[in-house]
Amino acid sequence: MIELRNTSRNHAYQLSQRVEKRFSGGLAVMAAYTFSCVRDVQTPLRAGTAGIVTWSGARVVSGRHEDLSPGISLYDLPHRIVFAGTYTAPWRHWSTMFSFSYVGESGSPFSYVAWGVGRRGDLNADGSNANDPVYVPRSAFDTSEIRFSGLSESAGADNSPAAQADRVSRQQAAFEQFVEDTPCLRRQRGRILGRNSCREPWSHTIIASVRQAIPLAGRALEAQLDLFNVLNLLNGAWGRYRVAAPRLLEHVGRTTGSPDAAQPIFRFDAAAPQWTTLQTESAFQLQVALHYRF
Q1: Alpha-carbon gap, residue 20 to 128, rounded angstroms
Q2: What pLDDT, in 10s, does the model give residues 241-287?
């Protein structure tokens, strides 16, 4: 049974500052900064989402589901910077306007989670293997903190004790380096990862356009060229919109012993990308429009 109830513990606030200046000669500029803070017990998903999905995927859970302490919302984007400007060329009859805008904002928050196939991956035994935040070991080389599997499931793989020990050693070194290179993990060593305590990279978007008026028998025809994601046009490695790949540790088994003493065993894929690039959002695009004014 899934019980839904209202809560008054969610809260949010936003502070914004904007300045504008219009100069002689056809130049106008604007700059704005917004700071916001959003905290909620569980981030509501879009309407029509099945209750079981909302229950299992709207927040990571390391304790009890009925713990309604507010945390960082999935909608929390603390910093947003906007610059915009327009310039109207001085010639009178064939009016030309150039404009640009830049938007930079914080990445969305997320949590690294453990996962598994079949009945594996559900570390807190709540029925879902998609909402379990990882424990960040003090040291990846300490087997009392975390254990890795050296067993390969590839056909014909060498699964001798020596080969498995080598795989475990390489995973330990790779995971230790990954934690050290990831600030949200490094500062939480020795505890379960906090809800939405990691962030995707900042996004940077620049749009430029030029509009040309063409007089036509007392009326006007306007041609406009818009260029979206100018950064990606200048350099293929720029202007990329990257989102997190939160599935970090694959749960593949448990050590033998009593339930209280047994440890989960994980597999860490060091070759898996840390971020997923959304190609549609990352590629530059051109748009041409014609406007006829009468």
Answers
A1: 50
A2: 999 999 999 999 999 888 788 899 999 999 999 999 999 999 999 99
How many C-beta neighbours within 10 Å does residue 264 have? 19
Q: How far apart are the first and last CA of the chain?
A: 62
Instruction: Give the β-pairing of 96-105 and 27-40.
Output: unpaired
Q: How many Å apart are CA 150 and CA 9, to the nearest integer?
A: 45
- Cα(42)–Cα(13) distance, rounded to whole angstroms? 17
| pLDDT tens-digit readout, 17-69 | 999 999 988 999 999 999 999 999 988 877 777 777 777 777 898 888 888 89
Q: Can you say how many angstroms the Cα of residue 139 is from the centroid of all Cα atoms in its chain?
A: 26
User: Is residue 61 a contact partner of residue 124, using CB atoms and an 8 Å limit?
Assistant: yes
Q: Using alpha carbons only, what angle is made at residue 79 by residues 76 and 85, rounded to the nearest 5 degrees?
A: 130
The pTM of the full predicted model, rounded to 2 decimals, is 0.89
3-state secondary structure labels for all residues of the chain: CCCCCCCCCCEEEEEEEEEEEECCCCEEEEEEEEEEEEEECCCCCCCCCCHHHHHHHCCCCCCCCCCCCCEECCCCCCEEEEEEEEEECCCCCCCEEEEEEEEEECCCEECCEEECCCCCCCCCCCCCCCCEECEECCCCCCCCCCEECCCCCCCCCCCCHHHHHHHHHHHHHHHHHHHHHCHHHHCCCCEECCCCCEECCCEEEEEEEEEEEEEECCEEEEEEEEEECHHHHHCCCCCCCEEECCEEEEEEEECCCCCCCCCEEEECCCCCCCEEECHHHHCCEEEEEEEEEC
The answer to whether residues 229 and 286 touch, using CB atoms and an 8 Å cutoff, is no
CA 195/CA 69 separation, integer angstroms: 11
